[in-house]
Design a protein that fits this description.
Strand order of the largest sheet: 1-4
CATH class: Alpha Beta
Order of helices and strands: EHEEHE
CATH topology: Alpha-Beta Plaits
Largest sheet: 2 strands, antiparallel
Number of domains: 1
C-alpha cells in the first residue's frame, strides 16, 4: 500500500489525483486511508517531492 512520508509539503496535488478519494488532509501532512486505497500509485506519480511511497519499495 502507499503511504505519505514526513517529506510531504502539503501541496494537495495528490488529493485531486486519487480516483477513490482515499487521501485527506491530516494535521501536518496528507494521509492515505488504507481501507480505501486501491494502490494504483497515481498519487505517487504526481507528488513533486516524492513524499508518497509504497511499502513494496522497502
Amino acid at each position: 500500500m502507499h503511504f505519505v512520508t514526513d517529506e510531504c509539503i502539503s501541496c494537495g496535488i495528490c488529493l485531486d489525483e486519487c480516483p477513490v478519494e482515499a487521501i485527506s488532509e491530516g494535521d501536518d501532512i496528507y494521509v492515505i486511508d488504507q481501507e480505501l486505497c486501491t494502490d494504483c500509485g497515481s498519487c505517487a506519480d504526481v507528488c513533486p517531492v516524492e513524499a508518497i511511497e509504497s511499502d513494496e519499495d522497502e
